[in-house]
Amino acid sequence: MTIAVSAAFDSGNIDVLRIAGPGAIELAIRKDAHSEFYQWFHFRLTGARGQACAIRITNCGGSAYPGGWTDYRAVVSDDRQSWTRAPTSYEDGVLTIRVTPRGDSLWIAYFAPYSMERHHDLIARIGQREGVTTDVLGTSIEGQPIDRVRLGTGPRIVWLYGRQHPGESMAEWWMEGALEALTSGDDLSVALRKACSFHIVPNMNPDGSCRGHLRTNAVGTNLNREWAAPSAERSPEVLCTLAAMDATGVDFAMDVHGDEALPHNFIAGFEGIPSITDRQMGLLTEYKETLARLSPDFQTRIGYPASAPGKANLTMSTNQLAERFGSLATTLEMPFKDVAENPDAQAGWSPERSKVLARDCLRALLEVVERLR
Questions:
Q1: Which of 159, 213, 168, 258 lies closest to 34, judged by CA?
Q2: Strand order in the sheet with 94-99
Q3: pLDDT tens-digit series, residues 1-10
Q4: 26, 27, 159, 320: least CB-packed within 10 angstroms?
Q5: What totals of helices (H) and strands (E) does the chain contain, helices first?
Q6: CA pair distance 288, 93, nearest whole angstrom
Q7: Are 341 and 253 in contact (CB under 8 A)?
Q8: For residues 41 and 57, is the Cβ–Cβ distance under 8 A?
């Protein structure tokens, strides 16, 4: 069989430069449309059953976060259900992935993909559960729905949203875990649904997700730099979501992301917003410390540097929501690599672990929920 590489599918991203046999497969990652960002890849290798392949992605040195390739390992799957890590090295701007496919097809990606088909299955499945309603806040640039899931009857208003940066697919695995936990009927879900009204947007950027973008929507907009003044032309995804938040208010918010370089789970807060209060900072510290106690995969030592007083970037959602509503707003970052504190040699950071962390985040929320107002 002839060895081939393709990426013409949901979230696919790769260009084929040269294939001269299993040891000479040369590829390049495409940039996000109308943007200089690139790092996400997802492609299918066919015709290489039982052959030791060396796949070289040649343009990684110019990617959005070249420091993220150090100690990184690509994920692979022959059934698109279970993803494991492949031997991967990085040198002189070239990422080399070594695989020996067991079958005729092997899928290779930057992180386990979360397809738009799975997204629609999630909305359909969760939407049928008791006490759950779903609606559409608006549409993306290309007309895809911005889905919201609503549940709970409590007085505290909680917003959970993810995949502003579409290549950070662990965010929607986290969302799946959160929705499953909140609809399980166990003590945690009952208590949270009594205390809170949840508004959950599993995918803020469906166009970028389909296109295989790393960070932007269909017109090259980084949605997490649009929250001060979103527009119908550049960022309708943020425009409709922020309008819905204005209608409900926000007591607690979590914006779910992935970080290319840091091998840690951590929370970025809103330090530096103009109207910051001691109450907000106390709640942020308490929430992070609670989550670190509950989850072996979460830590508080390493993260992003805090903004100087009054210098927070209000175009970013966490800062904007904390300033706008006086809320406890958070950005959760998960790794593309693995968690240094609790590594898994086979899977690294994974969909399954993302889902477990979601439940732990909800457990931490329950411990602080009474102090949100």
A1: 213
A2: 15-19, 25-28, 53-57, 94-99, 88-91
A3: 899 999 999 9
A4: 26
A5: 8, 17
A6: 36
A7: no
A8: yes
**CB-based contacts of 169: which residues, under 8 Å, 6+ apart?**
11, 111, 112, 113, 114, 163, 209, 258
Q: What is the C-alpha to C-alpha distance for residues 24 and 74, in angstroms, rounded to an integer?
A: 18
233 is catalytic: no
State the Cα–Cα distance between residues 324 and 186, nearest whole angstrom. Answer: 34
Residue where one domain finishes, among candidates 87, 109, 131: 109
Q: Model confidence over 259-313: pLDDT tens digits?
A: 999 999 999 999 999 999 999 999 999 999 999 999 999 999 999 999 999 999 9
Owning domain of residue 27: 4-109
Residues, the chain, total? 373
CA pair distance 48, 40, nearest whole angstrom: 23
Q: In whole angstroms, what separates CA 128 from the centre of its chain?
A: 24
Matching residue, tokens 């205390």: 195
Tell me the one-letter amino acid at 351. Answer: P
The domain that holds 163 is classified in CATH as 3.40.630.10
Which residues does 245 contact at the CB level (< 8 Å), separation at least 6? Answer: 159, 199, 321, 325
Catalytic one of 286, 333, 352, 370: 333
Integer Cα distance of 128 and 232 in angstroms:
31
Smallest CA-to-CA distance from 232 within 143, 142, 168, 141 is with: 141
| Sequential DSSP letters for 67-136 | GGGTT---EEESSSS--EE--EEEETTEEEEEE--SSSEEEEESS----HHHHHHHHHHHHTSTT-EEEE
Q: Which two tokens stand for residue 241?
A: 């979501």
Contact indicator for 290, 368 with CB cutoff of 8 Å: yes
Kindly tell me if the per-residue pLDDT of 373 is higher than 80: no
How far apart are the C-alpha atoms of 125 and 129, rounded to whole Å?
Answer: 7
pLDDT tens-digit map of 50-86: 999 999 999 999 999 999 999 999 999 999 999 999 9
| 282 shares its domain with 136 | yes
Count the domains in the chain: 2
The CATH number assigned to the domain holding 71 equals 2.60.40.3120
